[in-house]
């Protein structure tokens, strides 16, 4: 049976919100496509956001200089991570697709979702020095940011005061998701639903509903493959700079001093 | 008396860390320059990271659809924000300079510090629709990100696998700090101190020590002024696009489709 597993990591305080409606739409459509769907409702779970020694059961190795990544790596090796982290890691490991549903807070995820990334994506479990980016541990898994904004779309353009949305998405999509190997699907952006009329909000949900029908077959965004980079400096090999610029275009982050390719963090195949 | 007030918002779990040493250096040097220095030690304070209805004393206006920004705006108006938020707002309001000292977690601040931004920078207190960016509420206050990385500097270049550090800094420096009006000083970046030899770490701290001597006289980074943008769409007025590109250069976010100016989020006057 080719049943697909979906994890929705959901970060809104209120069941009456647009974010809740977007999450519900995903649950319904994906179940109707024979997916099994789990939801991590972070506020309802009172998910712990802060990365502390309490995330480890038993002794830490170096209490005088506690280093979170190294200590949790060791705890993960020895099965001594706290139960809430272990449970989220189980869900993540089983998933074929992960949808993060949240309101954009200060140009990025709310703290409770940042805490999920900080605590669940443990060194060893989610990445190692060798297994990152296109060699990453989750390279068979798809991931997608689905979020609402407070600002209108015009403000997030390359001439807008908030700046190009591709720039704002880079640290999240490249720095977290692709870093762990995830195939990053184009983000689902709901532009300022709070300022829209009810029919505007309905139209946004209808478009999401339509997209959800084919979501699992979508192609991911392009990120420059690991083997284009020198394996020591992690800079593009000189012979690959022009190749990258010509063949794929640079990306928002690895832009090689060229103009940023429009929408490279927003649409696949650009 | 022209005594300056400095707030250090510090987010590391361990007093034995490089981040702690960087924080201590700032406290010592700035006190020696006759500044008064307050430190918000977020982990020691067990600072609450998540934005919830518990941040409001008394009734919320709309429990069926709790909207954090609107509810906390109202609570701020009426003096009903929780004591921990009010105390941080007092420190922020009194400060001439704010230093954020943290380890970079997943290309941005750790969740506990994101929670400080989410909860302390209340609508009404820190920004309004009218008072943002160069018209922002904190335009007389300087702010600075001081952080350690896990990656080497080469990885964060325009040809590096992590992408241009200017791109990664934009959402934090423009989207949070400059959004609230802060004059953003060039970031203090400690590249991979954990991988450096002891003398390398000492040299990094010595350079920070030297910089701290003149920190309060530094010029801030350039962000395109508010009046260059149309006041409805918040896009650059057409007549200002070429002007911006020629006079100041575009910025990492508002790049106008031009190549990103090198170091515009890293050095003043570029």
TrEMBL record, chains A, B:
E.C. code: 1.10.5.1
InterPro entries according to UniProt: Flavodoxin_fold (IPR003680), Flavoprotein-like_sf (IPR029039), NAD(P)H_dehydrogenase_qn (IPR051545)
Signal peptide location: none
Location(s), subcellular: Cytoplasm
Chief location: cytoplasm
Any Pfam family hit: Flavodoxin_2
Catalysed reactions listed for this entry: 1-(beta-D-ribofuranosyl)-1,4-dihydronicotinamide + a quinone + H(+) = beta-nicotinamide D-riboside + a quinol
One GO cellular component term: cytosol
Cofactor(s) needed: Zn(2+); FAD
Record function comment: The enzyme apparently serves as a quinone reductase in connection with conjugation reactions of hydroquinones involved in detoxification pathways as well as in biosynthetic processes such as the vitamin K-dependent gamma-carboxylation of glutamate residues in prothrombin synthesis.
Similarity section: Belongs to the NAD(P)H dehydrogenase (quinone) family.
Protein name, UniProt field: Ribosyldihydronicotinamide dehydrogenase [quinone]
Species for this entry: Neogobius melanostomus
Lineage: Eukaryota, Metazoa, Chordata, Craniata, Vertebrata
């Amino acid at each position: 049976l080719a049943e697909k597993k979906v994890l929705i990591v959901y970060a809104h305080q209120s069941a009456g919100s647009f974010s809740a409606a977007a999450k519900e739409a995903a649950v319904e459509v994906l179940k109707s496509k024979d997916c099994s769907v789990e939801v991590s409702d972070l506020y309802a779970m009172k998910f712990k956001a802060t990365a502390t020694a309490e995330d480890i059961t038993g002794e830490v190795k170096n209490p005088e200089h506690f280093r979170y990544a190294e200590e949790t790596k060791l705890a993960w090796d020895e099965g001594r991570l706290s139960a809430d982290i272990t449970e989220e890691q189980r869900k993540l490991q089983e998933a074929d697709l992960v949808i993060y549903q949240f309101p954009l807070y200060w140009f990025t995820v709310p703290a409770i979702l940042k805490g999920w990334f900080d605590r669940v994506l443990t060194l060893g479990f989610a990445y190692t020095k060798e297994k990152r980016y296109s060699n990453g541990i989750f390279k068979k898994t798809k991931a997608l940011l689905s979020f609402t904004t407070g600002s209108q779309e015009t403000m997030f353009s390359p001439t807008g005061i908030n700046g190009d949305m591709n720039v704002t998405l880079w640290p999240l999509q490249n720095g977290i998701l692709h870093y762990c190997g995830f195939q990053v699907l184009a983000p689902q952006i709901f532009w300022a639903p709070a300022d829209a009329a009810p029919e505007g909000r309905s139209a946004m949900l209808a478009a999401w509903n339509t997209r959800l029908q084919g979501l699992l077959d979508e192609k991911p965004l392009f990120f420059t493959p690991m083997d284009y980079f020198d394996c020591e400096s992690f800079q593009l090999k000189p012979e690959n700079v022009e190749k990258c610029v010509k063949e794929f275009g640079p990306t928002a982050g690895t832009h090689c001093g060229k103009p940023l390719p429009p929408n490279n963090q927003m649409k696949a195949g650009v």
